[in-house]
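User: For a benchmark we're assembling, each entry needs the component sequences followed by a predicted structure for the full assembly. Here are entry 17's components. Please fill in the structure.
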Amino acid sequence: MRLDTLKVLNAERAARRATILVTDVVSGEQRLVKGADIATDHLAEHLDAALRMGKSRSIEDNGRNYFLTVQAPPARIICIGAVHISQALAPMARLADFDVTIIDPRTAFATPERFPDVRLLADWPQDVLGTVGLDRYTAVCLLTHDPKIDDPALIAALKAECFYIGALGSRKTHAKRLERMMAEGFDEASLGRIHAPIGLDIGSVSPAEIAVSVLGEIIMSLRKKPLRKETGA
Amino acid sequence: MLASDEDILAKAEVWKGSGKGVAIATVIETWGSAPRPVGSHLVIDEEGNFLGSVSGGCVEGAVVAEAADVIADGKARTLEFGVADETAWRVGLSCGGRIRVYVERVD
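Assistant: Structure for entry 17:
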């Protein structure tokens, strides 16, 4: 591998952008395809499939064998609300290899004692989400029950095309949420991407059980549905 | 925490940047039960230091030894390990699987 290729590959990954290194294992010929360039590549179909699964693999095309080294950004979970469910979800999600960030402006909730070893931001979502940087490899869970706190994060998550958006609350609460989002200019197709009530229907009762259902739903969204195509660099 | 694949390739860049000869080994194919998935990396410097893994520790020694030749002559090569071949009796995969590993120099 050329050092400059390795440098670009590492830089793209640090910026949370996907790349695929295409290696002809017989000739040693090698090139790096950025996520944004996959659609126009002559191996587009192969590259797209590999990226969706997030798995490196060998492929054959036109009688030539290539190895695809897939670098998909690590998925992460952002919980809006330093609530009881988040306390259970954070350690479970970390075990499943997700980066976790908790955001809640209410300092009585957002304490390091309640959330040891987790990135915790005691701020309003609209003030910190720009820095946190939502993208299509991010899951957002809205858990405060308070539109003042949840809504700005929901708007940001819809705009960033996050692969998962889940919102806590009854169907009635959610209907009102949808009305507010319509007023913000979102159409039905984008609003249909919100999982509400949040979590798989496994009959969860306790906060920890709800956390299991949310984590299961996030993993299902990540692995079973295609990630949206990369647009722009 | 164990070194993730990210740390491993970042380390390859750092080692190369400091003037060392560096090789990257990548699992490109597995058959049967293999301890590390396709795409796993092991990076090796000219002194035999390494980071990452391509198996559960069964064949790393052989890959590191081969990497020294790759660093020396710059020729990428594909290695195969499994219970069926002769090497395997010395460094084979105890799990009974087979793997192919592509080893290339960073230039």
